[in-house]
Design brief:
Elements lengths: L4 H18 L3 H7 L4 H9 L11 H11 L15
Length: 82
Amino acid sequence: MFFTQEEKIQIGKMVVERQELSGLTQAKFARANDFNPADISNLRGESWKKNPVLIGEQKWVKFARFVGFNRSRELEWNIANT
């Protein structure tokens, strides 16, 4: 397992937020970003919680990369003015 349940919830919310901010429909957003429209629907409705096989681990990795998910705040870049 790549991600914990809590991480998947966070990633899912980040993807849904991106879709909402884009102004695109779920289907258009999915196609524009090389996702399956059903996956976006499953994220939004959180159907994957009841049936984890709806979204496989590789798709979670793809979603995490898409939204820039980082497990640890320590691994994030800190930009300093110089």
